[in-house]
Design brief:
- The complex is a heterotrimer.
- Chain A contains four helices and seven strands.
- Chain A is of the alpha/beta class.
- Chain A is globular and about 50 Å long.
- The N and C termini of chain A lie far apart (about 40 Å).
- Chain B is α+β, with helices and mostly antiparallel strands.
- Chain B contains 14 helices and ten strands.
- In chain B, β9 and β10 form a beta hairpin.
- Chain C is α/β, with parallel strands linked by helices.
- Chain C has a five-stranded parallel sheet.
- Chain C has one domain: Rossmann fold (3-Layer(aba) Sandwich).
- Chain C contains five helices and seven strands; from the N terminus they run αβαβββαβαββα.
- Classes of the chains: A alpha/beta, B alpha+beta, C alpha/beta.
- The interface between A and B is large, with 43 and 46 residues.
Chain lengths: ~160, ~400, ~140
């Protein structure tokens, strides 16, 4: 990764092992949340590094947030991971194309705690999580929406 | 989540309501979540959670309303833990604005949230007693819970939906008279809570029904992302009040309660101990309330929020609750995401039923602390005989249905 | 909704109305207040009110929460399963008209979009005393005619 301020930040919080795998690292404005932007192909390696440093039982997936960035024609997926030893949240931020949004599922990388969040994001925004066999519709959305193929939380959907 | 082929001769489907609907989730709906338990004789061989949720579309609704209205909408995601929802929402907005509430407001927020924790824990323990058949104990606990509701009403003005939090502080202040009344109510409550805790610890039947039932391996608990008392009963000292230290939790002394056994008894005991810790914290807050203003002048609050994003967490009685807010400037949020703890606990927690008998399933379910009013009836489908019938969950727990 | 089967049937439930509680999509605030209204502190049994073991034994259907699409068909079916004479009480702002969620896509409105409602109890949530008061007023109305 190019930006040096991102690398310093990662070293300072104890996440220096991710330096080569992420494109950017910065702090969310408040509460000290460390955000790293990860290209989709590096997601597996990031999780491996986390496992190596903190153990399999040292972290869990807390929240999965999907955002429809319609102006930039992108969908954004944020994985909020809580790392017990550092007592801190790490946000894995992935961008994907809005027309055919898909990212690698954390379930396929061995993190079962991501299942509910991924199923929800799939149902409401249409993001495909590759490797998650539990994705199905309807999960939350009303049946009429599923029949019409509507993803209610998208910005161009008026309900 | 198990699925697929298991050798079973009976399927029991539990229609359940989830706690607070976050965006999509919907609490208390007729069959919003179907937990299917596959039985062979009396033993559970498979379990899965099928969602057919009814959801209220809260996240979309929040995008259509201003930030301040969203505080009230988010408070109504769950009636039982509404103070923590409003608090998390408000703190996410305060992080966007870069504002800090005054110290007196922080202490009062802690008081409101701890009172809520006490009432929620007493409620779930009362439901557990009812499921096991102790209806009198259930009624006694509900009677003593009224003391907490009265205290909440004196503090916030309403028994259930407090609407107490506002950006920059709280919406009401308390004076000496109210402080004394709340103190007296807590003094009356504490010996009763200690007595109930002793009943759970020492009563033979409760011990037989709860100990070693629903025992979960710690690596399974954290691997599946279960939260709150379920996680702490497996030995992990993870508590949002500890790692985030929001509001006054860095100043009010408290300890994280953990147990090692990770069975249903440990989960209920964690809740009882947390109740006692909460009562101590409330006393501390009442004795050490800082002077100053607590109520912000709502007319001075900014209408337009700056661009930015914020992620706030709070320790709800059921676990860690998180809010994510993205603002692109303007008066309405661009994205508001709520993730309630029951989403993880219930959908991912069904593996805990496998290996236990049918009568244990309601006990384990209640020990996860799902929404109470959702547990109405279970549908028992006998695959061999091809019959279906509705049975109240209480009867399943008491072993009436074979 | 008037009962068309004469006053004789209505007299039967006046002294022991059994409640069935149905949550069509509430936040549980109203539900715990309904639950609290059935505890000895508020003593509903002095009016003969208690929770019915099944819908076929119910006299009064207490609906909480705004009605979502999926719950609408269930609510209708539940109402049809109740034997007459039957009454419906909508508890809480959401059951009366949709509450704060009326604009969203999840809720289609209050309970009266699906079943005829005899008593509305406003509040968010209403106090247990208010819920019991509504039930008592309903019973008095039946006594009156």
């Amino acid at each position: 990764m190019g930006a040096s301020e991102g690398g310093e930040l990662l070293d300072k919080v104890g996440l220096g092992m991710l330096k080569g795998l992420v494109t950017k690292a910065y702090l969310m404005k408040a509460n000290d949340r460390v955000v790293v932007e990860v290209p989709n192909e590096n997601l597996g390696k990031v999780i491996e590094e986390l496992r190596r440093s903190f153990g399999k039982d040292g972290f869990y997936v807390s929240t999965v947030v999907g955002t429809d960035l319609i102006d930039q024609k992108l969908m954004r997926v944020d994985y909020f991971i809580y790392i017990a030893k550092l007592k801190r949240f790490l946000v894995l931020r992935l961008f994907t194309d809005r027309e055919n949004p898909k990212v690698t599922s954390l379930y396929s990388l061995g993190l079962e705690s991501a299942i509910p969040g991924e199923c929800e994001a799939h149902d409401l925004l249409g993001i495909k999580f590759e490797g998650n066999p539990f994705l199905k519709r309807p999960f939350f959305a009303p049946e009429e929406f599923v029949k019409q193929g509507i993803y209610p939380l998208r910005k161009d959907v008026k309900v | 989540m198990a699925s697929g082929e298991v050798k079973a001769d009976k399927v029991v489907a539990f229609p359940m309501v989830l706690e607070v609907p976050i965006g999509p989730q919907h609490p208390a709906l007729h069959e919003p979540l179907m937990i299917k338990v596959y039985l062979d004789g009396e033993d559970v061989v498979g379990a899965e959670a099928n969602t057919g949720y009814n959801h209220r579309g809260i996240e979309k609704l929040c995008e259509k309303n201003t930030f301040y209205k969203d505080i009230f909408i988010c408070g109504r995601v769950c009636g039982i833990c509404n103070a923590v929802h409003a608090n998390c929402c408000v703190r996410a907005f305060e992080a966007l604005l870069g504002k800090e509430p005054p110290p007196r407001a922080k202490y009062l927020r802690v008081l409101a949230m701890e009172l809520e924790r006490i009432h929620s824990h007493i409620l779930i323990n009362a439901v557990m007693a009812e499921i096991l058949g102790y209806e009198t104990l259930f009624m006694y606990m509900m009677r003593d819970r009224e003391l907490v509701m009265k205290a909440k009403e004196i503090l916030t003005g309403c028994r259930v939906l407090a609407d107490y939090m506002m950006v920059g502080g709280v919406r009401r202040d308390i004076d000496e008279v109210k402080r004394d009344r709340i103190r007296k109510l807590l003094d009356k409550l504490e010996p009763r809570v200690k007595y109930y805790m002793k009943v759970f610890e020492e009563d033979t039947t409760i011990r037989k029904r709860l100990i070693d039932v629903g025992k979960l391996k710690p690596s399974d608990v954290i691997g599946h992302g279960l939260l709150g008392p379920v996680l702490r009963a497996a030995g992990f000292p993870i508590d949002s009040r500890d790692y985030d230290g929001y509001d006054a939790y860095r100043e009010v002394p408290f300890r994280v309660v953990t147990r090692k056994e990770s069975d249903s008894m440990a989960r209920m005991m964690v809740r009882w101990e947390e109740t006692l810790v909460s009562i101590e914290m409330c006393r501390y807050v009442l004795d050490h309330l800082p002077q100053g203003e607590a109520v912000p002048d709502e007319r001075r609050l900014p209408r337009r929020f700056p661009e930015g994003e914020a992620f706030a967490t709070v320790e709800a009685p059921r676990g860690e609750l998180t809010y994510y807010v993205l603002s692109k400037g303007g008066v309405m949020p661009y994205r508001l995401k709520i993730r309630t703890p029951s989403l993880n606990n219930i959908i991912n927690g069904v593996f805990g039923f496998i290996g236990y008998s049918l009568a244990d399933v309601p006990v384990i379910l209640v020990s996860y602390d799902p929404c109470i009013s959702c547990m109405e009836r279970a549908l028992v489908i006998d695959l061999k005989r091809g019959t279906r019938k509705y049975v109240p969950i209480k009867y399943l727990a008491q072993g009436v249905v074979k | 909704m008037k009962q068309d089967k004469g006053n004789g049937r209505v007299k039967i439930i006046r002294y022991s109305p059994w409640l069935v509680h149905f949550n069509t999509g509430a936040c549980n605030g109203c539900d715990i207040e309904v639950l609290t209204a059935l505890t000895p502190y508020y003593d509903p049994e002095r009016f003969g009110i208690k929770l019915a073991p099944s819908i076929r034994h119910g006299d009064i259907l207490v609906v909480t929460g705004g009605v979502t699409r999926k719950a609408a068909s269930r609510l209708k079916r539940l109402y049809e399963q109740m034997p007459r004479p039957k009454f419906v009480v909508a508890v809480g702002a959401c059951a009366c008209s949709g509450g704060v969620f009326a604009d969203g896509y999840g809720i289609i409105g209050g309970a009266d979009k699906v079943v005829p409602v005899d008593a509305y109890v406003p509040g968010c949530p209403p106090r247990p005393e208010a819920i019991l008061y509504a039930l008592v007023k309903l019973l008095e109305k039946l006594r009156g005619g």
